Amino acid sequence: MKRHNSTRVKAPDYYNPPVQPSGLHKTEQNEATTPKPIGRYDEVPRAGVSPCRAPIGRAAADKPKERKALLTTKSIIGIGTWNVRTLYQSGNLELLLHQLNKFKWEIIGVSETHWTESGEFATEGYQILCSGYTDIHRAGVAFILNKVAQQSLLGYNHVSSRLLSARFKTVTGAMTVIQVYAPNMADKEEDVDQFYDHLQVLIGNTPGGDMLIVMGDLNSKVGKDWQKWNAVMGRYGYGDTNARGEKLLSFCAANNLHITNTMFKQAKDSRQWTWESPDGKTRNKIDYVMINNKWKTSISNSRSFPSADVGSDHQLVISDLRVKFKKKQKAPFQKTDSVKQDYEVTIGGKFAPLMNLDTTDVEDIWTGVKIAFNDTSNAVLGSKKSNKQEQWISEEVIHLSKERSKVKLKKLENPSLKPRYNYLNQEIKRKTKGCKDMWIQGLCTKVEHQAAKSKEVYATIKVITKKPTIRMQTIKSKDGRVLTGQTEVKTRWKENYDELYNENQLGNIISEDVR
Fold it and tell me: Is 446 exposed, middle or buried (0-12, 13-18, 19+ CB in 10 A)?
């Protein structure tokens, strides 16, 4: 008989069998279409006794603890995601935690854990929340929380093997974080649609005032067409867009989400992409951290970390957050009796010391009066900023101007750049004229719409027809010579006032008028 060769490889003797995370609390699997934000461990209702409700994943008998705010205006926190490919093999979890110790973070979402249980457990000082299948070692998502995040955890909801959400206390209220693992390209399109339907239900059940973060392996390429999708992504995308990327962008637009790791320019290309093919020739960005647009200004940076390695073809992505509040706008000043009274009382207190001054120096008295009025006005009335004229020069012209400045410096050493310098000169002139014409056309259109409001019409016409006022800043002597020296200028002013207020000359003028 012929001997057939087998492609199977015998497992080595030193191979350790796969293990499940120890100390895991089993919980009932929850469907994505019916997420339960609280009360999974509620007590059985009894007559005359109100059931005690507890946060998700915790027994009702646990004594509630005071939660600390995770996100504040003074601290920056790190929230990241990583597809580790598997944590089912022995030692993979420990290696993952060892790698994460090199970075600053509070919450890390993990995709493809391949664990078959759902719940929470603790290891090496970290709390791990996980959700997976009940029978097969596939997919699976999890959260890893450090001690700061543990003290802020309000509850969590293990929806399915692809969706896991947790809620944390913040200085503004609460923050909901959703870790996802989308179907890959080998899965059917029906699975992708079902995934987004379940994610939509989970987002819909999130409290409206929460800061919302959705992150994980979306298996979608959003590309870099930021001009078309500027509401959901930044200028620094990566690669091309595919069909599932279009689906993700549409989903973000429908839910007012912004992709944070497209917002910032990175010094190296390796900080942009998140996935690399086995042969190392193809790289894409398919892992994302998304936040609702209301809070996107709280993101200070978001990038990949190529130095983190757990044997996965995906890179760790971390976003830095810090709460930023808008400055409260002062209400327009209104003259009221109370303001008038406050002003009189304050100015009276400022003037009282001036009445008892021993000095007769006019300069000292005037300085005291000026300070009194300025301090009182700023304290009681406040200040009003002047309305600056709208800038009509476009950003393109400003960019060309900066480029021209650089070329000007370089052409001193490289004369061949002179044609480029001349071209930039012509372009700046042409585009500046076009910007001015467009600006005037816009003001004319504004006048047409303001025909019924005469005050606004005259104000707009004044802006169009106003010419710059040229002021004389020099002083000339009697013979017409321009005076530049400080002593000469003072002497000329003295001569002018002596002639203007000279008593003898004034008498001569009166005498001539009488005659």
Answer: middle
